[in-house]
Protein: Small ribosomal subunit biogenesis GTPase RsgA
Amino acid sequence: MAVGKIIKALSGFYYVLHEGTVYQCRGRGNFRKKKVSPLVGDIVEFKADKQDEGYILSIEKRKNEFVRPPIANVDQALIVTSATHPDFNALLLDRFLVLVEAKRIEPFIVISKMDQLDEEQTKEMEEYKEMYEQIGYSVILSAVQDAESMDLIQDHLAGRTTVIAGQSGVGKSSLLNSIDPRLSIDTDEISQSLGRGKHTTRHVELYEISNGLVADTPGFSSLEFGDLQLDQLPECFPEFVAVQDGCKFRGCLHNKEPKCAVKAGVEEGTISKQRYEHYLQFLDEIQNRKPRY
Structure:
């Protein structure tokens, strides 16, 4: 028996990485009985007599998991948002940040296509960078041909399992391919074998890039807050958490309550008014969410 990490799941097979070798495995039948499905990212105990004839025996407890994309044990999320084409969308970025924070996964932000901006637009992106860094997030302003920003991104990837999030067209594929040109070859081969277009890979796979593992995923197909509860939302805004002990009421939702430290911070300018407005939109969305049965 050995312990490895699932780096790909496809057509009922699980590909387990162990000491530099990948073993093709099936899941034991008892997983189905327990209604447990192995996920990419799972640490598993497996037995393999040959490289293409293995069985997964058990799955270690997960530290986190996503449903869409189906992946477990993620260390960080690289959230890619473009400065232009499509235009920078702070509301969408904050939505991604909440989804990632809710899973207790550390995000870092890459604003792509900086080379396509004029001076005024560049200044605006630099101001956003400063705002998010003050909250505590790492932010990289990136252009694909910019070696310095690529080096910074690679430093973040080293030694960690990273999932990439971002709307379509923001340059996720270009970013990864510029970091590691082998990835585009792999992605093409997989896509062709599935009979799909170049960038429409439907399964999740972990690639070894920059001494870390990066998930090439079909993306976050759902940007709904799903099971996120009202009292969890404030915990997804680090700048609120930093001052919430100053609120008069415990469990303050920072909305209509008096003597709220978050609202005071917005008035004083120490908390972004725009971020707070996004928070109120998300709060309203969760409050008015239709119950699921």
User: Anything to note?
Assistant: The chain has three domains: 2-60, 66-216, 230-287.
